[in-house]
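Look over this one:
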Amino acid sequence: MKFENCRDCREEVVWWAFGADICMTVFKGTLGLMSGSVALVADSLHSGADVVASGVTQLSVKISSKPADEKYPFGYGNIQYISSAIVGTLLLLGASGLMYGSVMKILSGNFVAPSIFAALGAGVTVIVNELMYRYQICVGNENNSPAIIANAWDNRSDALSSLAVLVGVLASLLGFPIADTIAAIGVSALVGRIGIELIGKAVHGLMDSSVDVELLQTAWQVSVDTPKVHSVYFLRGRHVGEDVHVDVGLRVSPSLTVREGDAVAEAVRARIQEEIPHARDIRLFVSPAPAAAVPARS
């Protein structure tokens, strides 16, 4: 991790997001009703979904911190993928409702330009949500948390949707009242796309997909560079919530005793934990190299 307080931020960041989302929901909803901006009202509903999403994320982060037990021997980390899927589903459902309402408004032909307060509300929310995105994406990446990263992208989607609202409101004020409703449709499409992406990533994680090739290359290089390791014959890794699980098959000189082989394995484990962030479960399998093989480095 870059900073010593990254773990502390992990416990605090979702509460900040939760509070910010509540404030933005009330702020945008009130200004949207006062100014007559359908796009801003729609955006406030998006923030309302964010409040639920932040609550789900907070719960999942707390549960994922529980240690492994007999019921879940690999721990509770995958609940963060479930949380990510819930957030994505909420975004997708909310986007569908906003799209339907906006299209029906266009078909009705009833357009009224909002007041300048709608532009003020949209501008403020762009800044707040972008700041929350940057805060959460930093914490999420440093802690390798799919739930916090999903919540960060939820805030980024809110910032982008508010930017679309701002453009639509300004266009309405310049004499194109339909622009506010068109902006609401654009917001819906953007939010729906992000929801689909989050659901896809959650399914990818729940299916125990492999870690990045670069991470496996690091594990391989660290292993073969360890003294008395002859070669690596097996290597795989997977994500379990915030943690990375790695399985490594090592070949060592057949002249080593079992105790010496275990010592080599522990050395490899220590080096992998040092080089790969969030490597929590490293399983090592030690086998003797073929007798005709080149002797291992001493």
Observations:
- Residues 113 and 154 are 28 Å apart (CA to CA).
- The first strand starts at residue 229 and ends at 240.
